Amino acid sequence: MKKMSFLVLAIIVLGVLEAGPLTAQQGETRRTVGDVPDVAETASVTHNSVRIAGRSIAYTATAGTYVMREDDGTPLASIFFMSYMKDDVDDHSTRPLLFSFNGGPSTASVWLHMGVLGPRRVVADPDGFALQPPYEIVDNEYSILDVADVVFIDPVATGYSRMVPGQDEHAFHGTMEDIASLGDFIRLWVSRNQRWESPKFLIGESYGTVRASGLAGYLQDTYQMFLNGVILVSMTELNVDLGSDLNYALILPHYTATAWYHQALPAELQNRPLRDLLDEVEEFALGDYLHALALGGYVPAAEKADIVRRLARYSGLSEEYVEDTNLRIDRGRFRKELLRDRGLTVGRLDSRYTGHDRDSAGESIEYDPAIADWEGTFSGVFNQYIRSELGYETDMPYNIWGNVGSWRRDQRVNVGEMLRSAMTYNPYLQVHITEGYYDAACDYFTAEYVFSHLDLTGELRDRIHFSYYESGHMMYIHLPSLEQMKNELTAFIQGALAER
Q1: 86-113: string of b/e by CB count within 10 Å (b at 16+)?
Q2: Which domains does the chain have, with CATH numbers?
Q3: How far apart are CA 181 and CA 211, in angstroms?
Q4: How would you classify residue 251: left for phi > 0, otherwise alpha for psi between -120 and 50, otherwise beta?
């Protein structure tokens, strides 16, 4: 088997199946490997439409599996995908193509699919909070299908993707193995669907930003597939080692945003616009605060007292609590402490959400109220949608969260450097980062810092674009942010393809 690659030798062209609206034809493709029966590939093709910006967009949807193989043809894994291609296009080779996946690293592609990019989206209240079950979906007037075709990929163990029986079920569950398996799938999909000439983009959320950053380098180095753009939604540190003290400084603006949202700041700060306040906090975080952290136990008493006072004002915590932390406010403990006097905790992925713990005196939250709010909504609507609208029939459970074992997080694989290198080799590769102010898992200020230090020359700065939302990790569940995100993704894709 090719090093760090699960190369597929045989390309089986799936025929385009004709079907009427909301109907599907589902089939299997089999062959044999020697005397061993092969694993089936499945496909269900449907036709439908969605109204976007007042126009009806007709599209063809395919839900199915591709089998990934060893060099000798031995099947390794069955990877599930869903693709949406706009109809009435004279030449798809000129149409932008977007590959989408989520993170975890154990979660399926359902969040970006049913939250922002696909033709249908989950229904929540305008702020993004779940409604009473049973849940429902509506046409997604903010779908990206008017701009680009989309392929959603479920990594192995998530969705309907599985290793072949007899293979190690966790063979792909490591940083580079995961990147290689997705890269090999993308190469196969592009070849089978004759889309090598299409402008190509990746979009990943959370750990999916690790996948997307690594894939930019892997696809370029392994298959000479050069991309036009990479979209990083709620970006992680990309395996870049920031150092512990720096982490305390970078998270502070998120603490301020969270306290501001919950009306926990002093009145003179609470009455200011959030963005104006954050500018001040960011300067403090990387200035006086970081200097005090760097001095460790040798910070002068007067300087420490001043930092304690300012930290308390900006975080919404008491001066006594801040001093007891030695100026180092743990993320998990902050979620427990901020609203302790109200008997509430705040969410990790979206700190606008609040929860109630059984033990209010503890030091960590018992659950993430944001995840609790989202899981039932997305799982319920997707399991109905995949069968009733996409016509994909299987008794296999769709793993919103899959078993990826003890994920092999190889810190030697610097995906940030892989992305930087890809941008250096490909002067047309653009990067767009979307960040929510209320996201503690992947906070916006850390994302800014990571990119400013990946590109020490500053030469890539004009090709790196940030957008910010008054929402959390999944900013698109907040209706005003969803509209903003659609407009900014459209502008990014079109801008990346403008002549230079």
Answers
A1: beeeeeeeebbbbbbbbbbbbbbbbbbb
A2: 25-239+376-496 (3.40.50.1820), 244-367 (no CATH)
A3: 10
A4: alpha
- Check: CB of residue 426 under 8 Å from CB of residue 226: yes
Going by C-alpha positions, the residue among 97, 145, 95, 92 that lies closest to residue 119 is 145
Q: Is the pTM of this model over 0.90?
A: no
The predicted-structure confidence for 306-362, as pLDDT tens digits, reads as follows: 999 999 999 999 999 999 998 999 999 999 999 999 999 999 999 999 998 888 888
What SS3 class is residue 113? helix
Phi, psi of 68 (to 5 degrees): -90, 140
Rounded-to-integer distance, Cα 96 and Cα 497, Å? 9
Question: What does the angle CA 251 – CA 487 – CA 186 come to, to the nearest 5 degrees?
Answer: 80
Largest CA distance in the chain: 79
Mean pLDDT on 273-300: 93
* Owner of token pair 């979906």: 137
Cβ density class 354-386: b for 16+ within 10 Å, e for less: bbebeeeeeeebeebbbbebbeebbbbbbeebb
**At a CB cut-off of 8 Å and minimum separation 6, what does 327 contact?**
248, 289, 292, 293, 299, 304, 307, 308, 311
CA distance 105 to 125: 28
Element (H, E) at 434: strand 430-436
Q: Is the peptide bond before 165 cis (omega within 30 degrees of 0)?
A: no
Q: What is the pLDDT of residue 198?
A: 97
Give me the percent of the chain exceeding a pLDDT of 90: 74
Give 326's contacts (C-beta < 8 A, 6+ positions apart).
none
Angle formed by the axes of helices 274-284 and 301-315, to 10°? Answer: 160
* Cβ-based neighbour number of residue 499 at 10 Å: 3
Q: Which two tokens stand for residue 151?
A: 């392929």
Closest CA to 97 of 150, 146, 60: 150
Amino acid at 397: P
Instruction: Give dist(CA 178, CA 4) in Å, integer.
Output: 9
End-to-end CA distance of the chain: 40
Q: In the block, which residue shows the tokens 């979660």?
A: 107
Omega before 96 within 30 of 0, i.e. cis: no
